[in-house]
Amino acid sequence: MFRNFTAALPSLAQAELRVGRLQYAAVHQTFLRTTGAKLAEATALGLRVPYLRCGRGEPVVLVHGFGDRKETWAAVTLLLSRNFDVIALDLPGFGEAPTVDSGLITPRAQAKFLAAFLDALGLPRVHLVGQSMGGGIAARFAVDFPERLRSVSLLSPAGPEGLHPDIQARVDQGRNPLLAKDFADFEVLNSILFAKKPLMPRPMRRAVAERWCLRVGELRGHFARLAAPEADDGAWCEGQTQVPTLLLYGRQERLVSLDNHRFYEARMPRARSVWLDAVGHLPHLEAPWAVVKALRITFAQG
Length: 302
Prior knowledge:
single chain; alpha/beta; Rossmann fold; 12 helices
C-alpha cells in the first residue's frame, strides 16, 4: 500500500521511513498489549469499518477529526479503559475505512452512520466524544439522536464559523495545510495543530505522515464538501440539545475559529467549557490526563 509513497523519497528518507514504520508498529503493539484492545469490524449502512475496543463499564465512543484515524485516541483510551468500555472507530472515508463519496462525510450523514454503528454493536446509549470534525459530527448527533446519548464531549470542534482566520487565508490562497501531500507539508500542519512540537521522533512522524498523505486525493473532495455543503446537508448542529455537554479547547487553538465555541455554547444549555493552557488543536494528544479528567466529570452528569 505504501510502495509509491516510499519510491518517491530520497534514499535517506526511505531509510528513515522504514525505521518510522517499525517504531509506529512497536508503539501500537505496546498499546494493544497494555489495554487489551481488540481490532474488529462492524457493518453499518452497508459500510464495513474497523474499530478498536477495550475496557469494561459504560460505553464511550471516540470520533476522530479530519484526516485522522482511530489510533489518535490511544492515550485517552489507555486512561479511560480502566473504568469504561472504550470504542474508537475509523469513520467512512478515513483511516482504514472504505472510500466513500464525499456526500457521505457531512456531519448529518456521519451522525446517521454513527447511529447505525451503535445499532450494529448493540449499544442503545453511549458517551460520545468527538474531536475537530468529529466534534462537529458529535454535536450533530446530539441534536439528531439525543436519546442515544448519556453525554457528548466536543474537543476543539469544527463548526459553522469555520476555520481560524489565518488558516482560512491559506485555504483561499490554495495552500490548505490539511491537504498535506508530503512530509514537509505534514510538518507544517503539525506546527499548526500542536502548541509545542510533538515529542514523537522524526522517523515515526514520517510514518504517520505517510498514512495521512496516502488519502490526500479523497481528503480534498471531503474538505470541499464540508466547506460548502449543499442546502439539505444540515452540515452542523441545528437547534438545541439538553444532553450534558463538554466543550473543551486549547488556548493555543490555531486551526478552527473560536467563534464555534460561542455557537455551540448557545445551543447547548447544559454545556460546561474547559480551556487548557499551552495546548493547541489536539488536546487528546497534548494533554490526555487533563482531557480524561474533564471527560470523567461530564460522564458523571450523564
